[in-house]
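Input (structure):
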């Protein structure tokens, strides 16, 4: 074993560099009994000393660089979901967000610390968890659903917030405008009010006999009134009567649909909101029980047994949200990041449910579907 291996501060890399430098010097410097001058075209003495010192510093510089990297501040990200922790859609959305963060170089426990809270549609939880997440002192918070944004805005006006699954951020008072959000909030919307009329069109196409339509919406949200207003604007042209029903809680939904179904020729439109998402399974089951043809706002309703859905994918925006979170951590401001709307809406038809309701789906409607569940 070389004796150099026992010398402190030296590694094989520095020893090799020293040997190479010595060979280069020996080839260009005269013998010791001659003049000690280094040829002007060769390696100068001070360059040699500097390089030699640099070689010895290599094993020290590497640990210092590693320590500098390790010394970088651990970033913090809060995740505030309005669904319950065991909700399949909620789990899928968080998984997409975390995977996208990883692809951008952010790994939980390595260079970022992530705190996740699930509101489950409970107002008290929203308030408590919002305070808890703000106290966590995050660099940015991902907020899913309008109620979580409302709670967070009451807790902070400075911590950056990136929202998803929000229908009307301007009407909700979250941003000044879509192009220039201002403040500490930006994100990704789910629904444009103009598309709400499409739900009524689809309902009449798949169930022409429908004359009365119950509209499940959350009256506490600006988006609930906006979607209902868009439906009311087109209802006369389809010859139907609309009956708004609130989605305050499970018992309220059950009573409302039971009373509505007592009269024949009824149909159902479920608007987009955290509350309808939270009670998805109940709403689908009640529609089947009371034999109500129903149109839903997002694909996951039809995949779980709903008759027909028309709306955007709710998982992909979490990939986009990770991009905004990354940009904010790196120094950009929410006020400068425009709110983005969906660019693609998917039509999904569940033929099994149609058959159970005794409905024959028109071939033209089937041909337009992005997905048909058999």
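Output (sequence):
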């Amino acid at each position: 074993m070389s004796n150099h291996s026992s010398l402190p501060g030296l590694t094989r890399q520095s020893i090799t560099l020293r040997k190479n430098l010595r060979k280069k010097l020996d080839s260009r410097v005269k013998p010791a009994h001659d003049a000690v001058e280094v040829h002007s075209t060769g390696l100068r003495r001070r360059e040699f000393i500097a390089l030699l010192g640099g070689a010895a510093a290599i094993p020290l510089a590497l640990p210092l660089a590693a320590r500098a990297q390790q010394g970088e501040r651990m970033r913090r990200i809060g995740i505030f979901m309005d669904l319950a922790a065991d909700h399949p859609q909620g789990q899928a959305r968080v998984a997409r967000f975390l995977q996208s963060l990883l692809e951008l170089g952010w790994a939980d426990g390595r260079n970022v610390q992530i705190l996740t809270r699930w509101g489950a549609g409970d107002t008290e939880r929203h308030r408590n968890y919002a305070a808890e997440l703000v106290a966590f002192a995050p660099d940015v918070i991902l907020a899913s659903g309008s109620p979580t944004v409302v709670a967070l805005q009451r807790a902070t006006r400075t911590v950056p917030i990136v929202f998803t699954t929000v229908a009307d951020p301007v009407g909700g008072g979250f941003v000044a405008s879509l192009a220039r959000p201002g403040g500490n909030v930006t994100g990704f919307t789910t629904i444009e009010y103009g598309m709400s009329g499409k739900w009524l069109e689809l309902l009449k196409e798949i169930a022409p006999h429908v004359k009365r339509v119950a509209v499940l919406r959350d009256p506490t949200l600006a988006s609930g009134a906006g979607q209902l207003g868009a439906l009311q604007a087109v209802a006369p042209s389809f010859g139907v009567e609309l009956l708004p029903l609130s989605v305050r809680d499970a018992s309220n939904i059950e009573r409302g649909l039971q009373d509505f179904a007592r009269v024949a020729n009824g149909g159902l439109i479920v608007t987009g909101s955290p509350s309808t998402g939270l009670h998805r399974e109940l709403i689908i089951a009640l529609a089947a029980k009371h034999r109500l043809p129903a149109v839903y706002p997002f694909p996951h309703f039809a995949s779980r047994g709903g008759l027909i859905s028309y709306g955007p994918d709710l998982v992909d925006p979490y990939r986009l949200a990770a991009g905004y979170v990354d940009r904010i951590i790196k120094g950009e401001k929410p006020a400068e990041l425009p709110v983005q709307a969906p660019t693609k809406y998917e039509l999904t038809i569940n033929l099994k449910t149609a058959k159970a309701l005794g409905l024959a789906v028109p071939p033209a409607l089937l041909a337009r579907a992005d997905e048909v569940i058999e």
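Notes: The longest strand covers residues 75-81. Residues 1-69 have pLDDT under 50 and may be disordered.
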